[in-house]
Each structure stands twice: as structure tokens, then as C-alpha cells.
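Limitations
The C-alpha cells in this dataset are predictions for the assembled complex, not deposited experimental models. Users should treat interface geometry with appropriate caution, especially where small molecules or nucleic acid strands are included. An illustrative entry is reproduced here so readers can see what is and is not provided.
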Amino acid sequence: MEKRTYPGKPRDVYLYATCLVDMFHPDAGMDTVALLEREGIRVHFPRDQTCCGQPAYTSGYPEEAREVARKQLDLFPLPWPVVVPSGSCGGMMRHHYPRLFADEPEARAKALALADRVFELSEFLVHVVQVKLTDRGSAETVALHTSCSARREMGTHLTGADLLAQLCNVKLEVHGHESECCGFGGTFSLKQPDISSAMAADKVAAMQATGARGFISADCGCLLNLNHTLEARKEAFRGEHLATFLCRRTGAKP
Amino acid sequence: MNAPLNYVPRSDFKKRTFAATQDPHLRQSFRSAMDFLMAKRQAQFPDQEAFEHLRALGEEVRRYSLSRLPELLEQLEANLTRNGVKVHWAEDAEEANAIFLEISRSHGATRLIKGKSMVSEEIELNHEMAKHGVDCLESDMGEYIVQLDGEKPSHIIMPAIHKTKEQIARLFHEKVPGVDYTDSVDELIQIGRRILRENFRDAHIGVSGVNFAVAETGSLCLVENEGNGRMCTTVPPVHIAITGIEKVVEKLEHVVPLYTLLPRSATGQAITTYFNVISGPRKPGEKDGPKEVHLILLDNGRSQAYADEQLRQTLQCIRCGACMNHCPVYTRIGGHAYGTTYPGPIGEIVSPHMMGLTATHELPFASSLCGACGDVCPVKIPIPDILMRLRREASHEAEPGRPALRGQGAGRNRLVSLAFAAWRTIYSHPGLYRLYAWAASRLNFLTPKSQLGWTASRTPLIPARQTLRDRLKNRA
Ligand code: SF4
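Predicted assembly:
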């Protein structure tokens, strides 16, 4: 994991919601806005945003990914931070965009400049906003799940845990295979359903075995994978997006 | 001795992974074995910074060696020849086996005894020799067990890791004449030792692999724990070593960081019980050692990887197996499901060069790209990046004027290509995307309930009734 220097708290940020939040987790997007606004930050949503390009990028279609990514490069004309409430998409923009445009000097320069101001939500709240949360909820025990790439590339397991630790009535439970992949892997879940399902089943079992009431994640792919697995298994255990959880616990209103 | 091979055919990877994931015994035994190995490795690298430092050194040595591969191979050949070792070059498995056969015939040899060597598995040496009446007996305990059962190794370091103690006990009782059933590990090992002892004495030729070949001194280094490697390379009158062309390093001192990393990454040992350095046959006046030593240098697709700057990194591998020990996919399906000599992440990136993409195009996709392999690799091979690259080559035919990989485009699927073309059109035109997202959310009741592999074990993905962008718009 790289060491990063963080800017001070800004007045304005861009929200890059990702296609997953836009279509499948709009609540998480609204809650992200609420959390940021409560800190006195103005949130700007570039309406031409679509997808970071990861699905094609990881599936062996880099040319297609590049065309979609190219469009995202031009969405953020002012020098504000770009906050991404889904870890692996943030990682795509921060770590893979510069490589995707390795052969195009102009686009690469843009990608590098953008990468520098892309922040995953929990990272942004902890290191840039230096948020101080006040827990208003009753006692609750949760597990935390982070996407593998966000964990590895941006240390979101640390910033996620840091935020949960600020909530005095929330207890975080960990299990023996914390860092193991939940089996989402983008198109992996479609292409290798048997292996992916086995991984998802093990992950939900491990989290439930901790005695947690549910789990928290700031990664929409993992959340969809695990929640839809749990729903198919008719189990009550569920995952909640970090932004939604923080709003609920601290009384921020979307 | 050579039982008929009953290993799985190479087609239908999906069927094998399905069977493996449905087998609770397999799942449990791989899970606990891999947990054990991960913990042992972790104990050897308690300090992440020190590990990063060491593996940067390991990577450097491997990259440097590969950057000078052609000259180092020539230097190795010259120095080995000077030391009295006969050097042979094999383009593929067939050529390598022909060399084995020729040497065996020239000595009238019918009994070979072999130390652990994955390259000999790669060329299916035992099987090929058996066709010509030459017996090739495995002397590594794990290899001996899988050979006894007519299987292939399921792990490159621990070949019989998929077997329980009870299965091995039954196997010995059934296949080894005069052995009563016992599931005492000590007794089983003693039985194995007794049989192997006699075979070391009677074998005509000893066979081994090579972990590092040192160009400057003309030496072959062999890393092992059981002492069978030393027996194979010292007791029989002839020793044949076989290795891939990528295993050469320039100097003995370059072996040090690699040997520091190898056992720690592989079995969580600081050092192995044996480290053999072979620098030629018995010299006049010496009391032991083989009278003749051969080295076979095998290409078998490696030069294809070598020719491409990114894919060349595949050849940095020192075959420690850490990537499979940490792989959540390998842990779920075990080694046999891959249908290749090398399973797990390293198998996914190296097998396409050895076997062509036609036979292996599914393998680069058998990964969630979680990155655990790349994190532990002691020579820093960026395995996930290479997997993504191979996904591309598997899905696209070669462009004119650009070098193609063997079997390039074999995994091309028109529907998938069409889907990504459509995806590109929609997602690179914001207006189109907005229309699509609006329709998909407003008409979410029309979402198909069956969604390829997703709904095999999950409820379908249904877009929310209103997208985030619409909710934000309404709010403002
Ligand atoms: S790829 Fe790396 S981790 Fe895997 S076997 Fe080779 S050296 Fe070991």
C-alpha cells in the first residue's frame, strides 16, 4: 500500500458515484452526500458520469475500457477532490487509469492528475475531512468487509475500521479469513459461478459465525454479491453500505 | 509399477470445478492445508517491510538473469561442459523424452529413480518412459503416493496434499505387496523408505530437477527436504537433470536471496534439510557420485513468454507455490481441477505458453483478481496484470503484423464481444447511458430473473426504481 499525503478539508468535492451506486445503491449515494454536507462540504455531481470502465478492463477488453474511461477523464474541470463511495472503482481510477493510458501522453497526464485527487469514501472521511462522529445508536455488533483491491491499494480496511471505532456503541467483529476475497471479481461471478458461489458462501458463513448482526462495506460489488447470496439462502443477515450505516448511527439526514 | 494414468482430461474445466466445489472433503482438506501453510509462511516473514526489501532483491536477481538469458545459458553450457556435464537442449516435451530414452538405451537402463521435478511432470516423463519399457519410480514421498495411485500432483510443492492419511494407508495396503493397513504416519513413512532404499540401490539412472543453475560456476542447485534428491543424484551411476531454460542465474551469490525466499515462501521453513550443489560427475580418485551427468534444458513454450516484455515476468517464478497456497480459487477447487501440470495462479499464467491458449483459454478467467497471489509472490510477479493480459489475448484474434500467442483468440466468444461493444457505446455516450439507466430503473420489473452465472446462487440484480442521478435532480 502506498503512502499518500492528504490535502486539507475542501469546500467543494465532486461525487463520482459509479454505475453500481447510480443504478443499484442510490441510497448509498444519497447518504454519502448527506455525510459530506453535514461536514460543510458542497457536493457536485457531474451528470455525464457513467462507469469507471472496470468491467471491460478486467475482462480482457482494455480497448473498450479505455473509451469509457476517456469520457470520465473530462468530468472534473475544477481542482476539487473526487470522492468515490465504492472502493474498487476508486482503485480503478486511482491506480489503473494512468496505466490504461500509458501510450497516450496527453490522456495519461490527465489520468495522473485525476488519480491524485481521487479518494475512496472512508479514506476521504478519515484522512481529508478528519471527521469526528458521534454515535446516537444503541449497542450493535458488525463485521466489516472491504473489496480486495481497495484493501490492498488504499487500505480501506484500516479507514473503515477507524470510522467504526469512532462509534462508541458499535463493536467490530473480525474472523479468521478477513482479507480473503468474497468471490465477486466483476465478471468472475458470471463466468465462474461455482467457484464464486463457494467463496461467497464461505464469506457469509465466516461473518455470521462472529456473532455480528450484519456487515458493513463501502464496496458495492461485494455488497451486491453477498447480499444477493444471503437473500437466495433466505438468511436474514445483511450487508449495509458504510455511508448508510454512518448516517443511521449518527443521525445524518439524506 | 506404472499404474495407468487416470488423470482428468483437459477439456471441460467447468465440470471439474463444479465437482470440486461440491466435494466437502476436498474443500475442507485444502482449506485446512492452505491455512496451515499460510500461517507458517507468515511466521517466517513477521516484518512486512523486511519482506518487501528481500523480495525486491529476489525480483531484481530474477529480472537481471532473464535480461541476460541467452548469454547466461551459453555460459552455463560452456562451464557445465568443462565440468564434464553433458548438456542437451529440448524444444518441447517430445524432444526431452527422446533424450531421456536415448540416454537410457545407451546404458541399457530400464529402471530410473526420480527426485521431485515438476519439469519431468510437465513432459509426462514416467508415462512416456513406460511406453518404452523403462520404469521411472518417484522417490519423493508425496510424488510416490500420487504415482502409486496413478494420479498427478495436486500442488507443486506438496503433490499429495489432496489425500488424507486414511486414503494413503488404504493405498499402501492395496498397492504395495505385503503391507498391512496402518494409518500411523511414522509407519507409513518407514514403509516408503524401505521400498525406496532398495530402489535407490538398484536404479540404473537417477533423475532430478534443478532449482537454480549457476552459469559462472556451471553448477546445479537442488533444494529438498527428504534426502531423496541427494540419493538420486549420487547413488545411481548416471544422473540426468532436467530444467526449464529460465532457471539460470549468473553467480552463486545470486542464489542467496532466492534460496532465502524459496523455503520460507513454500513451506514456511527458514531453510531446507538439504541443499545440493552439483558441479559435475565423479572425478578420478573420488569414492562416490555418478560417473555421468546430463542436463536437459527445456523450452516448451517458455521462449514465447520470453519474447514479450510483460509476459516475460512469468519466467521470474521460482516455483515456491505460495501463490496457490494463498489463492481463494485454488483453495476451493484443489490442483487437479485445473487439468494442467502447474495449478493455481502460476499455472494460469504459465500453462498458456506450454499448452497453447486453445487448451487453456479458460484458466486466466479462473480468478477473481483478488491479488493475494501477487502480494505474496517472492519475486513480485504481477500475476493479476498478467491474467488480465492473457484474458485479452484469449478473447481477441491476433492483429496483423503483431506477434500472436499460440492459440490466441481461442476463447473468443461473439456474444461477449458484442456485449462489451454495446457496453462501450452506452457508457461512452452519457446521453445514451442516462436513457438506459432511466429505462432500466423505471422498467425494473422487466429485468430478466435469470442472469447467467449470477443467479446460480444469488437472487437477480434489479435496478432501483429511481437512479441516484434522478434522486439528486429531484432534490435540487
Ligand atoms: S508465481 Fe511467485 S508465488 Fe507463484 S510459485 Fe512462482 S514464485 Fe512462487
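Some entries come with short summary sentences. For this one: The beta strands of chain B are 85-90, 111-114, 135-138, 205-208, 212-214, 219-224, 238-244, 248-249, 274-278, 292-298.
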